[in-house]
Fold this sequence. Notes:
By secondary structure, the chain is of the alpha+beta class. The chain has one domain (2-46, 60-148). 21% of the residues lie in helices and 38% in strands. Strands 1, 2, 5, 6, 7 and 9 form a six-stranded antiparallel beta sheet that branches. The chain has a three-stranded antiparallel beta sheet with strand order 3-4-8, with no helix packed on it.
Amino acid sequence: MKRQKKIIFTCALGLSLLTVAVPSFAAKTAELASGGWSESEGYYNNSSSDGASVQLASSSTPDSHVGERLYRNVGSSASPINEYAAHGKTTWYYVSHYTTARMELSNGTVKTTSGRVYNNSNWISEATSPWFQPDIFDNPEARTYWGQS
Length: 149
């Protein structure tokens, strides 16, 4: 009995720490991103216009960034169960960079995230969030972010 209480306490403590840490990390990802795409606002750029944060001989914005919402039905045609994921692809030649794809609620609550996916040797980074199955009153939105490494 004592051992069970200890295990339950440890699990509860771990979950409470995750509840605090994940939203904090997710918010920082969006704040640190240089730009991206959201379903409600389209494409945007947060890059510095004074040139102070721009690396020499490189562009301050990617050559291309594409964001989209993915959809799949995991139910039947008679009783659909919709799931969604965010997908982003960034091409930025000669600049080390990353792409992050997230499903978020309209208030900014992160439901799923790919984490940062860094560019490959072809200067392309591509990220897809895990699938998200919204509750009936959720208003999910796909959002993608890009930034320099």
